[in-house]
Amino acid sequence: MFQVAWMHFEQSAILAVHSHVITRNPRITVSHENHRTWNLHISDVKEEDGGTYMCQINTATAKTQLGYLNVVVPPDIEDSLSSSDVITREGSNITLSCKATGSPEPTIKWRRDDGSDINLNKTYSVNEFEGRTLELTRISRLDMGAYLCIASNGVPPSVSKRIRVSVDFPPMLWIPHQLVGAPIGFNVTLECFTEAHPNSLNYWTREDGQMIYEGKKYHIQSRSLEVPYKTQMMLTIIRLRPQDFGTYKCVAKNPRGETDGTIRLYGE
């Protein structure tokens, strides 16, 4: 009776001869149907099992048949070789990297978590960027937020990693009304808008530098706006008296710097 041998071509390894498994790999078995049809079985297939397999019949002139096993592996992002959350100063350049494994080799695409465009530089932006590294030049506060690195190779599921980019900058102030008039006995609200990251410490003073505190005379509010680094400061002065007229300052401080703005309150 002729015998059938199985080999892994690239590994130059004889796996089985007839019904005897030679390899020490416990995942490999052989079977036959009446010695006419022979089968090689690989359980719990791994990536290294891929390659060319050859079955050979030991006739006078050996007969061989080749088969190729293509093992596909879904993508996996290597966390230790990819960027983690980044804190940087406004105006600097940063590079985000994302390393993924899989078979076939995964493609890497970048998107912003909120769906807005990625600003690669001051003049060029894209909704999606392909490549292992994403370079952002002269970064601004508008670039702050979460970036998604998405790895896919046609084998489900695709995987993603969320990288948060924080952009630090000193406080800025915008005062919509620098001159405010109100009659005695009425309440009046002064307001300032700040932009800062990290978030600034915000407070109000009189012209002599005396800090203003919440109480019966003053009501102080601070409200976050549509983006986390913007804040609206409001100071309500209750039942105006003549001594309340004069100059008020809104002050914003963070580790990157400080600034203040002036509002003049007069009687009508």
From TrEMBL:
What keywords are annotated for this sequence in UniProt?
Cell membrane, Disulfide bond, Glycoprotein, Immunoglobulin domain, Membrane, Repeat, Signal
What PROSITE patterns does UniProt report for this protein, alphabetically? Answer: IG_LIKE
Question: Domain named Ig-like: which ranges?
Answer: 1-65, 75-166, 170-264
Q: Which InterPro entries does the record cross-reference, listed alphabetically?
A: Ig-like_dom, Ig-like_dom_sf, Ig-like_fold, Ig_sub, Ig_sub2, Immunoglobulin_dom, Neural/epithelial_adhesion
**Pfam families in the record:** ig, Ig_3
For this record, an example GO cellular component is: neuron projection
Compartment(s):
Cell membrane
Q: What is its main location?
A: membrane
Give the protein name, as stated in the record: Ig-like domain-containing protein
| Native species | Rhodnius prolixus
